[in-house]
């Protein structure tokens, strides 16, 4: 019985977080009641899982960052050459960022747990960029901290390109990954 209750609680938390992402993306000031309604749950159930709006925002931040880590690890970046790994990781991360646009693009709660996860994401990214440098994809004197910042900016810009919402093909994570990696490695210059 305890296991069934735990599974039910996990499902309701997942439903609340997914509904919160959808509702808050449409209206950042949406109430807990609106989120509960979108999740198909009562307001009491939402408040049982999250004491207040801040607790919900904190849970959103942790959940989205954990999903980014899972996406990075799912790409198995150590199992392929750096270029292949960069494409895989980028496509997977873009899938998560696309599904969690509100949470990942808004300043939200920076709890210790969220900060620790962000540190883990940075470590994964720097490890992959270090391999890319070692394998000759990046210049030997490339500043990896700066490259990481540029990479993150490209990820954000790829999802927010003008006109992308009207053209679903422009949101294809694999095509966007090629755009991000090609821009990161070659800039906008000629590819001769």
From TrEMBL:
**What InterPro entries does this protein's entry cite?**
Homeodomain-like_sf, HTH-type_TetR-like_transc_reg, HTH_TetR, Tet_transcr_reg_TetR-rel_C_sf
Q: Say if the entry is tagged with keyword Cytoplasm.
A: no
Going by the UniProt record, its keywords in alphabetical order are: DNA-binding, Transcription, Transcription regulation
Query: Residue ranges of the HTH tetR-type domain?
Result: 10-68
Cite the PROSITE patterns for this sequence: HTH_TETR_2
Could you confirm whether the keyword DNA-binding appears in this record? yes
DNA-binding stretch(es), residue numbering of this chain: 31-50
Protein name, as recorded: Helix-turn-helix domain containing protein
Q: Tell me what organism the protein belongs to.
A: Streptomyces mirabilis
């Amino acid at each position: 019985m305890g296991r069934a209750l735990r599974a039910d609680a996990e499902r309701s938390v997942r439903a609340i977080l997914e509904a919160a992402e959808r509702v808050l993306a449409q209206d950042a000031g949406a109430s807990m009641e609106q989120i509960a309604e979108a999740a198909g749950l009562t307001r009491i159930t939402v408040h049982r899982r999250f004491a207040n709006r801040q607790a919900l925002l904190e849970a959103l931040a942790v959940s989205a960052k954990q999903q980014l880590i899972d996406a990075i690890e799912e790409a198995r970046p150590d199992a392929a050459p750096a270029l292949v790994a960069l494409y895989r990781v980028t496509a997977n991360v873009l899938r998560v960022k696309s599904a969690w646009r509100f949470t990942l693009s808004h300043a939200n709660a920076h709890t210790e747990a969220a900060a620790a996860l962000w540190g883990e994401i940075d470590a994964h990214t720097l490890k992959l960029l270090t391999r890319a440098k070692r394998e000759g994809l990046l210049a030997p004197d490339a500043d990896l901290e700066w490259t990481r910042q540029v990479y993150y900016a490209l990820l954000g810009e790829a999802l927010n390109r003008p006109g992308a919402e009207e053209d679903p093909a422009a949101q294809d994570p694999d095509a966007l990954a090629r755009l991000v990696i090609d821009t990161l490695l070659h800039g906008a210059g000629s590819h001769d």
